Amino acid sequence: MKIRFREVTKEFGAFTALSGFNLDVRPGEFLTLVGPSGCGKSTLLDLLTGLVKPTGGEILVDGRPVEGPGLDRGVVFQQYALFPWHTALANVEFGLEATGVPRRKRASIALRHLELVGLGGFASHFPHELSGGMRQRVAIARSLACDPEVLLMDEPFAALDAQTRETLQEELLDIWQRTGKTIVFITHAIDEAVYLGQRVAVMTPSPGRVREVVDVDFDTRSGDLRADPRFGEYRHRIWSLLREEASPLAQAIG
Ligand SMILES: Nc1ncnc2c1ncn2[C@@H]1O[C@H](COP(=O)(O)OP(=O)(O)OP(=O)(O)O)[C@@H](O)[C@H]1O
């Protein structure tokens, strides 16, 4: 297994955010994680990056406990987190500085990754000259340029309009297929989880744990997956799981 969460608990003072959380992620897998607001999705990602320590249990990457942040794990957040005073190229290069890549090599690696996300012609643009979708592409390029084995994504497309979001979803699948990265992708959106994930881990409300992992098994990932009748079936299955877990009040008003 690439990543293992074993009986992970996370408490913030008296509040338990995660309890008995178990999940395995396979090498090269695209796993999506859905759950209600506040169920601990972002906390899980913080644990996986090593920015936060679990209260109990363990998180293993390649069989080794996560001790802190590492270049083997790249992160893309909802907010672009680009430096406004740097060009797209310099933003991607910045990520490479930490990896010890010699200065003269950084520009060519950065450009190659801007090309990978379709922004080869925008290397000298500043973030304010780019659309939201383009800025998020730069953020993805910056993470990929460091060549992490695992890409952790926390609602990276949530702030984008529907059409841009669908375009970026397609592009991300393409990048995943080309690079073979292991991707853990957090989302609120059931459609997005089904479209992107080979498996969808459905979480319970706080304290979060895995309710069920749904295998999403399309014959092929090419073509319009959303038009496949099975897309609707998976969507409904996940919706039902989330609804079963919702509070009686939410069910009554929902
Ligand atoms: N540093 C912290 N101190 C105290 N409580 C925290 C802290 N970080 C998170 N929490 C709490 O832990 C719970 C889980 O938070 P988290 O952000 O992981 O949820 P989430 O599933 O990502 O939510 P959303 O989908 O709304 O982004 C929330 O109730 C939150 O208030």
TrEMBL record:
Gene Ontology MF terms in the entry: ATP binding
Keywords: ATP-binding, Nucleotide-binding, Transport
SUPFAM superfamilies: P-loop containing nucleoside triphosphate hydrolases
One Pfam short name: ABC_tran
Domain of life: Bacteria
Stretches assigned to the ABC transporter domain: 3-230
Protein name per the record: ABC transporter ATP-binding protein
Protein source organism: Nonomuraea longicatena
